[in-house]
Design goal:
The chain is α+β, with helices and mostly antiparallel strands. It folds into two domains: 28-229, Hypothetical Protein Pfu-838710-001 (Beta Barrel); 250-544, CHAD domain (Alpha solenoid). Helices cover 52% and strands 18% of the residues.
Length: 549
């Protein structure tokens, strides 16, 4: 299919139409929330009291083709260009991905009727939209994938009385994404805010999730379509850099930091469900740990009630991911090097087989927790809390005053407290018992998360040097912890199979071989570990020098 070129266009006067059959619709901020479902769940949604009372649904079949350049220029810009056929009409839409707030997506959208099935870029005149597109030459665009699904929509009025009224469109989509050679099912529910507060979207979603086990759905149809077209599985996502701005009010900075942690968690949700990238479990768990650490960091200014459930729910979900992550680490970092050093040892092969079985069970538990309605409600509850004011919600006058101050005034103080706590716990490091080093490792991790949250406020080499010294020390203590965790896991594994038909003695021998190998390695690296502790303790905190940006 061809495409019309994107040509420079002069600024149009207000109300002036583009040179096409009709003007481009002004951009809108589309606020929508998506939940994954099954066919039976969609049937349950239809029977739900809140949905059934909304009246007769509107049903239609939607065929949509998505276009991009061969080098995926639009996808790299987090944009999607599509042409949708509705009866005899064709609607072209350019959408951009916006921020995710507890699964609520805010997307830019420019929509226009066009004459036929091929894209017509001449109807797009908005400067923001044109900046997203860049230069698109004739013949650059080609179909990438299509979506074909039945959509059933209802308008639901919520709120009223003492709360602000809102109108939400509920859409049930059932169909497929397809390329020339592959297909992927679509079965999902979307809630789009038409008017009123975004909090109403979360409230309605929570009411539905309380009845029906709907689950988190973060990836849009466009993202899924690109992955399908390019034969790509979802990949693990690390936490990106965060620059909150020194003049941001403390309340806004807290909300942004917490949202950053939640986005890190949800970005890895689909990776955990696919189960093909071990790093996905790790990164999802890190996101939840960062969230708990952030809540603890700001406990003096956060309302107590949300701080409590944020910590407890993050602890529950991270704990459910624990066995999968621990067996991943054991197999790749602890068992594999021993197998390489001792090839052909039958007892090591038995140990690997049993560990792989435990890993499989761990992944099943992790995936069940990720799909659990408790995890979905946790995310929705967080989104509702942010929409209702976030850190400012339910605060007293004294706390409100603290929340209005620039975050830079609080950041250095919080960092210094954590740094001093680590130095105090690290006294006598060289002769420290394993248990005390484990406690120190946890405090170092909390310090590192705090440093990551605030590093953007303190530019320069000092911050980078501090982070490097902290990371080196964490790596050493992390391996020590991995060995201690492996000892616990192997003890349980031996007890589990002690009375079985497998060679329990051989299993004990293999476990001793692995633990002995790494205990010796830890002992050999002790001088370097002590040097790294001394190096970290000597590094001057970066927040005590230079200026806050």
């Amino acid at each position: 299919m061809g495409a019309k070129p994107m040509e420079p266009a002069p600024a149009a006067a207000e109300g002036q139409a583009a040179a096409s059959e009709s003007p481009t619709v002004a951009p809108t901020a589309e606020i929508e929330l998506k939940l994954a479902a099954t066919a039976e769940m969609l049937a349950q949604v239809r029977r739900s009291a809140v949905v059934a009372s909304a009246g007769t649904p509107v049903r239609k079949h939607l065929d949509t083709v998505y276009y991009d350049t061969a080098d995926r220029r639009l996808a790299r810009r987090r944009a999607a260009l599509r042409v949708r056929r509705s009866g005899k009409r064709y609607i072209q839409t350019l959408k951009t991905e916006g921020e995710l707030v507890g699964a609520l997506a805010a997307r830019g959208e420019w929509e226009s009727p066009i004459r036929g099935p091929d894209p017509d870029l001449s109807v797009i005149t908005d400067p923001d939209a044109r900046a997203v597109l860049g230069v698109i030459l004739p013949g650059d665009l080609a179909p990438v994938f299509a979506t074909r699904f039945a959509r059933e929509t209802r308008l639901i009025d919520v709120g009223g009385g003492g709360a602000p009224a809102a109108q939400i469109e509920l859409a049930l989509d059932d169909g497929r994404i397809e390329t020339l050679s592959r297909k992927d099912p679509i079965c999902e529910l979307e809630l789009e805010l038409k008017s009123g507060s975004p909090a109403a979207v979360f409230d309605l979603a929570r009411r539905l999730v309380a009845e029906i086990p709907l689950s988190i759905a973060v990836r849009s149809k466009a993202v899924r379509g690109y992955d399908l077209a390019d034969g790509r599985d979802p990949s693990a996502v690390r936490a990106g850099d965060l620059d909150i701005g020194s003049q941001a009010p403390t309340a806004s900075a807290i909300d942004r930091i917490l949202r950053h942690c939640v986005d890190h968690w949800t970005a890895n949700h689909e990776v955990v469900l696919q189960g093909v990238d071990p790093e996905g479990v790790h990164q999802m768990r890190v996101g939840l740990r960062r969230l708990r650490s952030a809540v603890s960091l700001f406990k003096s200014v956060l309302p107590g009630e949300p701080a409590g459930w944020l910590r407890s729910e993050a602890r529950w979900l991270a704990g459910a991911l624990g066995p999968a992550r621990e067996w991943d680490v054991f197999l790749s970092d602890l068992l594999a090097p021993v197998e390489t050093a001792h090839p052909g040892r039958a007892e090591l092969s038995v140990l690997r087989l049993l560990a792989e079985e435990e890993k499989t069970r761990g992944y099943a538990a992790a995936q069940a927790a990720a799909r659990d309605r408790r995890a979905t409600d946790f995310l929705l509850r967080f989104g509702a809390w942010l929409a209702d004011g976030g850190a400012r919600s339910g605060t007293e006058d004294a706390r409100t005053q603290s929340l209005d101050r620039p975050i830079a005034e609080l950041a250095a103080n919080l960092l210094d407290r954590r740094h001093q706590r680590v130095l105090k716990m690290g006294r006598g490091f060289a002769g420290m018992a394993v248990e005390r080093r484990h406690a120190l490792r946890i405090e170092l991790k909390k310090l590192r998360y705090a440093v990551d949250f605030f590093a953007g406020l303190f530019p320069g080499k000092a911050a980078r040097s501090y982070r490097r010294a902290l990371a080196r020390l964490q790596d050493h203590l992390g391996h020590l912890n991995d060995v201690a965790v492996a000892e616990r896991m192997l003890t349980a594994l031996i007890e589990q199979h002690a009375s079985g038909t497998r060679d329990a003695a051989g299993l004990g021998l293999a476990s001793g071989l692995v633990l002995g190998w790494h205990t010796r390695a830890v002992a050999d690296s002790e001088p370097v570990t002590c040097q790294d502790w001394a190096g970290f303790a000597a590094v001057r905190p970066f927040w005590t020098r230079g200026r806050v940006e």
